[in-house]
């Protein structure tokens, strides 16, 4: 077969797949149709806000914030979620218990569906069950990977960290970017969001196949035990591809995991990086890949892997004695040695992370006697008091990372270096809606002002008048 013939055949197949997507409709508006209705009003709201209040001072910047990672500086627009230090995360105004109650579930299911959360984050509205089902089918229809992406994953050495492989594969999908192709042809700015939307749906649709292929290559025989099933939801398909679809509880865990890890305001590294790169009009594929590279860091998404490693070390050194007294002694030894307690503390939160609470409640329901869960529970009862007495931690309460690995371990997904990949699949559900909205309301390229230390010294002297 010639290269031209092969190209024409691929194009025909792509068009056929794209047309097939459009058959999954309901009597209600599709997500893209509803977004097209919402965006003009949202763009006008932003325009009027800037016109009427653009000169309003919304905060002040301290020198220590400039040198402290811009902590707490109000300077980003993020529609999907807001993180309150006391209340915790709210998705479009809804708490995690709210979305567990309000978002559509799979037939007979217990946990909310991540595709329903995607709809909520993008529109601010809770979709109907029919709309959620149609979106599930659309993801399934777009899930196939290009041949060259499959080959890139298969050629990656097994010792290359799964997150590095994940980022490489997502970057390689740039070949499929409708936005990049439309931009090269000179598309009107008003239509940027439409191509960004299509890329985002394509990208989300393909992530389960990418993640599962990496997992099966690195840790198993390289063969996927199942294929995407158009009759199943996103979480169920991911569980099947990984090889755990036969366990209904694990399927529910995937639905919960993908939902609660999706979004955590715009200032975290993965969210901010995706937004920043996207502001340069890079495609969703390149933007998310950049965000994934940030998520891979030990101070961000990789922390869940480090927590689990620490738990195993604690358990080994305590020789199985996980009493509260033994744990308290171990924690003090850790702190006095100048080390931190992994999984405790958060840059913004000043209470127990609601995502931790959701996972704890899941564990109490499905694995109350699991020894690793008992260990985490005992740490939860001891650590806040120790950290408070120690006095060097602003938030002595657990964050999401201190629990997620325990749940995965229980169901047999024991390869902790893969955990951040699951986090990355979930985080895509949170950052891509904002990328679409950025293009829909015409957000500009991000370009804050920076100074050298010498210039800051001069600035401070001038302000203080000496």
Per-chain topology:
Elements: H1 3-21, H2 31-53, H3 63-66, E1 81-84, E2 88-91, H4 96-102, H5 114-123, H6 129-141, H7 147-155, H8 162-172, H9 178-185, H10 192-219, H11 234-242, H12 248-260, H13 269-279, H14 284-295, H15 303-317, H16 324-336, H17 354-366, H18 371-390, H19 401-410, H20 419-440, H21 453-464
Antiparallel strand pairs: 1-2
Compose a concise summary of this entry.
The protein has helices spanning 3-21, 31-53, 63-66, 96-102, 114-123, 129-141, 147-155, 162-172, 178-185, 192-219, 234-242, 248-260, 269-279, 284-295, 303-317, 324-336, 354-366, 371-390, 401-410, 419-440, 453-464, and strands at 81-84, 88-91. It is mostly helical and 466 residues long.
Describe the structure.
The structure is a single chain. Mean pLDDT is about 90; it is low at about 1-20. The protein has 21 helices and 2 strands. The chain is mainly α and about 475 residues long. It has helices at about 5-20, 30-55, 65, 95-100, 115-125, 130-140, 145-155, 160-170, 180-185, 190-220, 235-240, 250-260, 270-280, 285-295, 305-315, 325-335, 355-365, 370-390, 400-410, 420-440, 455-465; strands at about 80-85, 90. Strand 1 and strand 2 (about 90) form a beta hairpin. The protein has a two-stranded antiparallel sheet with strand order 1-2. It comes from [Candida] subhashii.
Number of strands: 2
Radius of gyration: 23 Å
Strand order of the biggest β-sheet: 1-2
Q: Which sequence of SSEs, written as H and E, runs from N to C?
A: HHHEEHHHHHHHHHHHHHHHHHH
Structural class: mainly alpha
- Total helical elements: 21
Keywords: Transferase
Family: Belongs to the citrate synthase family.
InterPro entries: Citrate_synthase (IPR002020), Citrate_synthase_AS (IPR019810), Citrate_synthase_euk (IPR010109)
GO molecular function: acyltransferase activity, acyl groups converted into alkyl on transfer
């Amino acid at each position: 077969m010639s290269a031209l013939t092969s190209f024409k055949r691929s194009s025909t197949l792509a068009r056929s797949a794209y047309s097939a997507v459009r058959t999954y409709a309901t009597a209600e508006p599709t997500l893209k149709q509803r977004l097209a209705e919402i965006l003009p009003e949202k763009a006008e709201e932003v325009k009027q806000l800037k016109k009427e209040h653009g000169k309003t001072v919304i905060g002040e910047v301290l020198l220590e914030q400039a040198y402290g990672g811009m902590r707490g500086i109000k300077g980003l627009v993020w529609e999907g979620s807001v993180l309150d230090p006391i209340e915790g995360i709210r998705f479009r105004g809804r708490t995690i218990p709210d979305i567990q109650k309000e978002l559509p579930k799979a037939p007979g299911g217990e946990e909310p569906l991540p595709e329903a959360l995607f709809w909520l984050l993008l529109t601010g509205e809770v979709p109907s069950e029919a709309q959620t089902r149609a979106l599930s089918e659309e993801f399934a229809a777009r899930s196939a990977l290009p041949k060259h992406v499959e080959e890139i994953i298969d050629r990656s050495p097994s010792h290359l960290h799964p997150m590095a492989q994940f980022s490489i594969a997502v970057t390689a999908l740039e070949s499929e970017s409708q936005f990049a192709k439309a931009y090269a042809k000179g598309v009107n700015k008003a239509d940027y969001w439409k191509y960004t939307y299509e890329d985002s749906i394509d990208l989300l649709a393909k992530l389960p196949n990418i993640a599962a292929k990496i997992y099966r290559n690195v840790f198993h025989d390289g063969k996927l035990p199942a294929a995407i099933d158009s009759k199943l939801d996103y979480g169920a398909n991911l569980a099947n591809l990984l090889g755990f679809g036969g366990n209904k509880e694990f399927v529910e865990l995937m639905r919960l995991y993908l939902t609660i890890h999706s979004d955590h305001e715009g200032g975290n590294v993965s969210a901010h990086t995706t937004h920043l790169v996207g502001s340069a009009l890079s495609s969703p594929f390149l933007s998310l890949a950049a965000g994934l590279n940030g998520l891979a860091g030990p101070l961000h998404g990789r922390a869940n892997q480090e927590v689990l490693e620490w738990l195993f070390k604690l358990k080994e050194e305590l020789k199985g004695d996980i009493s509260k007294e033994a744990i308290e002694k171990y924690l003090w030894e850790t702190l006095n040695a100048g080390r931190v307690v992994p999984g405790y503390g958060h840059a913004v939160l000043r209470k127990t992370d609601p995502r931790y609470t959701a996972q704890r409640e899941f564990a109490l329901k499905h694995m109350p006697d699991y020894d690793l869960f008992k260990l985490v529970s005992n740490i939860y009862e001891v650590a806040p008091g120790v950290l408070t007495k120690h006095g060097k931690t602003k938030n002595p309460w657990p964050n999401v990372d201190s629990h997620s690995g325990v749940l995965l371990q229980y169901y047999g997904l024991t390869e902790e270096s893969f955990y951040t990949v699951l986090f990355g699949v979930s985080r895509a559900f949170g950052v891509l809606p904002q990328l679409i909205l950025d293009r829909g309301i015409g957000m500009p390229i991000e370009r804050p002002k920076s100074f050298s230390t010498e210039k800051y010294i001069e600035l401070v002297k001038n302000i203080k008048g000496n």
